[in-house]
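Hi R.,

As promised, here are both runs. First protein below:
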Amino acid sequence: REPSNQTTHLSMAWHSSGSTNADLVANLCKNNLIKSPKVKEAMQNVDRKHYIGDSPKSAAYRDTPLSIGNNATISAPHMHAWCLELMELKSGNRVLDVGSGSGYLTACMAHIVGQEGHVYGVEHVPDLVKRSRSNIAIDRPDLKNWTIVEGDGRNGVSDYAPYDAIHVGAAASEVPRELLLQLHPDGGRLIIPVGKTEQALYMFVRNHENVQQHRITGVRYVPLTDLKSQLKITDQ
């Protein structure tokens, strides 16, 4: 299924907030942001309240990005839903989540790919690596098909490649070549926001040596940077 080249209208996204996780997912479905049963089931079974760091618990089910500390955010639920739909994950897939942050999307993807699949998260902030592992263990102790490693996600994680899908949770100034090389050559998908001041969400589909590019829509994400830049560490 090929996406439309036309920018999708997202005005209804901001009307998807709920008072519970079930409400949030129901509203995302009503506004046609969740379309497939597997994405609906995943987001119903991964409770966002466990992944929002020190943000107020009352904000857990708002359809808006939230701070999770370390100059990082958890994306708005409508963006999570959209990216999950674009990846078209299947049982048994191997997936990479770059900038896995709170671990929320890693858990959603692990739910979809099932025990025959595996999701690898890569995060360069040590505190987020530790907390995301704890978040998933608390929320979904039954999930065993995920691994979160510490590292620079711009380089991917070549040890476990190739991946059926790669998701990037921050905006790259340009598409990291390493990520394209780590896609499965037979239809691997990369979902990534690209740009500096003007950003857009793109999907790249690899077919052996050829890569198709699809612009999905304009977006606004935090930048995909090195660790020192993210934590605003200066050399003394």
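And here is the second one, sequence first, then its structure tokens:
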Amino acid sequence: MRILQALRLSVAAATAFGLSACADKWQRPDLKIAKPAGWIDQRTDCPLWPAANWWSSFGSRELSTLVVEAERANQDIGAAKGRIEQADAQVRINGASLIPVITGDGDTSIQRSAGGQRVAGFQTTLNASYELDFWGRNRATLRSAQASAVSSRFAEEVVALGVVSDVANVYFALLAAQERLAIARDNVKSSQTVLDAIQGRLDVGTANGLDVAQQKTIVDQQRATIPPIEQEIRTNQTALALLLGRPPVALQVKGGRLAQLKTPRVQPGLPSDLLARRPDVRQAEADLAATDANVTAARAAFLPSINLTGQGGFESTGLRTLFSSQTALYSLTAGLTQPILDATLPGNLDLAKGQYRENLYAYRKAAIQSFVDTENAIITVRKSAEQERLQQAATDSARRAYDIARGQLREGAIDIVTMLAVQQTLFSAQDALVSTRLARYQAYVSMFEALGGGWSASGQPAGGAPLPEAAIK
């Protein structure tokens, strides 16, 4: 049929014209910030970027299991995936303007004339309409939606990285609290042993009631440290359950000691490489691309729009003759609409420009923040390791002093005041050692987070939703 052939040709031509502009690419703007050539306290010649499963470098199977479950069941990650689905749907919605809208109609009617004669009528039509995207407004709105879809994927990666980091930090805090609880209970036993020794000296007249009361105070003080530590353990367990999307009662954590963990090997490379690894920087870049496309669309809205419509079908008084060539009908129309007075257009353009400017500064800040986070993580890892080494030496010395003092106490060769001071020094040193060790492992978590977590060889985020092909290129 001629009308159907003409309609198909017009649809194909319009579609080809609309989709031919999809190759438009956004040019990344100059950040206009000084990118450091290296790090203040770190060499960059032998970089060791984080692996995709960077948490496994701590050598804890339980931690790896918890992370895998958090990636699967965490509510914030699930919500971020929902936002990806919304963004993808918006891409399809915006892209629909680049292809024709086709509808079909079918009508039947029966009329009775004044003479009593009944006349039946049958009609079927195929309708097509298309806006010729001559100025690129529809293509720009599609590019904006595509950039927002990319942004949603990086946003999901930001959320996932934060969740995994929180799981590691809370798990390490739980290990530290369990270790501190074991130390506190040992300290109660040790201080009780000293109390028994002083009580024995009181019985033979080499000590007095004040000595016993002072040591009893230390025993009670050590016992008083246990409830808040137990509370801390429970709080960490409930926090971990929340991250895993579980009710607290359903979580069982074996735990262990911080000293059993491995020290990760990680070393950042060039600062310029960092920008491509940080999902928050990539998200800010995608947001900027989206608003750039919005500016293009807002400018194009000032220009005339061209609409093509076509209709073809058949109309007959009988079903048998409905689809014959004599009953065919068609129409082709073209219309042009030029905005003359629309006060919203300048406002929309200014709004789009303001959003672009806002996202440009957010992009720059994200880049600078990535450098700051990495510098802070480097020095924190280094100094926390140094502090742990010094605190370990102090704890070892306090332990030796305590062993010597306890032996002298049994022999009656030391005064009670010295023994009390030695005990307090050891107990404080042990607790401080656990805290400094916790700080070191959490510093490594901050390092991994500052470096953007893991990044696969394909350029895809580790564990996040896959990026559209256009986003990778």
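A quick note on the second one: Residues 1-23, 467-473 have pLDDT under 50 and may be disordered. Let me know what you think.

Best,
J.
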